[in-house]
Amino acid sequence: MSSKRLALVAMAVALAACAQEGAQQAQEMEMSAGAMEDAAAAIDEMRGTWVQAYEAGDAATVAALYATDGVYAPASSDAASGRAAIEGMLTETMAMMVNRQLEVTQTEFGMSGELSYGLGTYTLTAEVEGEPYEANGTYLVVAKRQADGSWKIQAHVSTSDQPPLMEGGMMESGMMEEGN
């Protein structure tokens, strides 16, 4: 075989390999798009459950949405690590409020491998010690796919335009007193 023919055969093999690799990448991208859609639907459902349980004062249901080693770091408060600590923090915070209404709007979603993230805004309205309370802020949630295929919150961080309700916050500082 001449060197020209050998070069042409090598080029044809290389092109075929590239075409096959391109087809594989296209298939993986399609699978990734499907996986992303599935993850987005699961995260939407989880967010809806979080909001409904929070409004109902069901700290146990909210905490169950977190991974066993998950972290919840609400605005201006220490982070709670692990489901029991998260449930305890939520129970304490929820006990201070009545008529909780939480509006959450996800503005961005992304996924890479076994992790996904959601970024958005929220408005929380409630009554605290008989006074109206409203907090607006942003949140970032990182969720991780579990071995069983479900998604759990691995990390949840939020900001707020209000001081925390607990220790050193509104009640202790007197911000909830009449005239403040």
What's the end-to-end separation, in Å?
93 Å
How confident overall, as mean pLDDT?
82
- At the first level of CATH, the class is Alpha Beta
Q: What spatial order of strands do you see in the largest sheet?
A: 2-1-6-5-4-3
Structural class: alpha+beta
Overall CATH architecture: Roll
Number of helical segments? 4
Radius of gyration: 24 Å
- Number of spatially distinct domains: 1
State the assembly state of the protein chains: single chain
The CATH topology label is Nuclear Transport Factor 2, Chain: A
- The ordered string of helix (H) and strand (E) elements is HHEEHEEEEH
Helical fraction equals: 40-55%
- Sheet-strand content, in percent, reads 35-45%
Report the sheet with the most strands, covering strand number, pairing sense and barrel closure.
6 strands, mixed
The tally of strands reads: 6
Q: Which blocks of ≥5 consecutive residues have pLDDT under 50?
A: 22-31, 168-180
Shape: globular
Topology:
Blueprint: H1 3-56, H2 59-63, E1 66-73, E2 80-81, H3 83-95, E3 97-112, E4 115-128, E5 131-145, E6 151-158, H4 170-173
Parallel strand pairs: 1-6
Antiparallel strand pairs: 1-2, 3-4, 4-5, 5-6
Structure characterization notes:
InterPro entries: DUF4440, NTF2-like_dom_sf, Steroid_delta5-4_isomerase. Residues 1-19 form the signal peptide. Keywords: Signal. This is SgcJ/EcaC family oxidoreductase. The chain is an alpha+beta fold and 180 residues long. It has one domain (26-173): Roll (Nuclear Transport Factor 2, Chain: A), CATH 3.10.450. The chain has helices spanning 3-56, 59-63, 83-95, 170-173; strands spanning 66-73, 80-81, 97-112, 115-128, 131-145, 151-158. A hairpin with a 6-residue loop joins β1 and β2 (80-81).
